[in-house]
Amino acid sequence: MDGGVVPISAPDDPRVHDYVGLTDVARRSRLESRAGIYLAESEKVIRRALAAGHRPRSMLVSRPRLPFVGDLVAELAGAGVPVYVGEPGVLEAVTGFNVHRGAIAAMRRPELPAPADLARGARRLVVLEDIVDHTNVGAVFRSAAGIGADAVLISPRCADPLYRRSVRVSMGTVFQVPWTRLEPWPDDLEVLRELGVRIAALTLAADATDLDHLAADPPERLALLLGTEGDGLSAQACAHADLAVRIPMAGGVDSLNVAAAAAVALWALRPTATRD
């Protein structure tokens, strides 16, 4: 694959195969997993991926946006990375949508770290079980970055944090918050407990401790365990938790969206040293 700026005039050009059918989630999951890549969309997200040390495979740029990303194009092309440039209609035919942000990069997936390496010394962790909505996953990462979680751990069936929508919703914070998958699930949760991390399951159980009560004297090292959007946490995952926690609700509402719940709990349980 040659570097430099490469004009693209046909949507079936094999050189832009990495970008075909970006709206087809199932197809993209297979292709990106097989090729060991993910897609970073928009100039800001691409720059954040590069700043995190991720390696680009190529970039696709809409010709009208070329003057606005000239330095980025020059940087990648100068490093031997191919930058494919085409008219908006060609890019839409390739990707399946209007690339209004003007730039997408195919990035090489970094190797995931071992769970113990992330948990060792961590004060706050977020653990997600089977969150299948990419928007929710991205929003959790943004909260984890903004409020100060040390890492995010996800179950094998959880949506991919590096899927295009997750990356976009997170505003690129999936690149700055360390993360990995726990497998086998949920047995690998014991890795956290062996390292002295207490696990708090966010649940609607009647005997769960109110978040306010736990926040009054939070553990020094804590992992917040959150479940899937519909059914919540599985009984198997809850069995590995040290305590159950609920967010008190009003107005006849029983619970928050999982991303909102993660943000509320992270803020309430942030380590004492980080509080005003």
Write the layout of secondary structure elements.
Blueprint: E1 4-7, H1 25-35, E2 37-41, H2 43-51, E3 56-62, H3 70-78, E4 82-86, H4 88-95, E5 103-108, H5 115-119, E6 124-128, H6 134-147, E7 151-154, H7 164-169, E8 179-181, H8 190-194, E9 198-202, E10 209-210, H9 211-216, E11 222-226, H10 235-238, E12 243-246, H11 258-268
Parallel strand pairs: 1-4, 3-4, 6-7, 6-11, 7-8, 9-11, 9-12, 10-12
Antiparallel strand pairs: 2-5, 3-5
Explained architecture:
The protein folds into 2 domains: 105 residues, 2-Layer Sandwich (60s Ribosomal Protein L30, Chain: A), CATH 3.30.1330; 160 residues, SPOUT methyltransferase, trefoil knot domain (Alpha/beta knot), CATH 3.40.1280.10. A 7-stranded parallel sheet has the order 8-7-6-11-9-12-10. A 5-stranded mixed sheet has the order 1-4-3-5-2. Helix 6 links the parallel strand 6 and strand 7. The chain is elongated and about 60 Å long. With 276 residues, it is of the alpha/beta class. The protein has 11 helices and 12 strands.
Question: How do you describe this structure in short?
Answer:
By secondary structure, the protein is α/β, with parallel strands linked by helices. It has helices spanning 25-35, 43-51, 70-78, 88-95, 115-119, 134-147, 164-169, 190-194, 211-216, 235-238, 258-268; strands at 4-7, 37-41, 56-62, 82-86, 103-108, 124-128, 151-154, 179-181, 198-202, 209-210, 222-226, 243-246. It folds into two domains: 4-108, 60s Ribosomal Protein L30, Chain: A, CATH 3.30.1330.30; 115-274, SPOUT methyltransferase, trefoil knot domain (Alpha/beta knot).
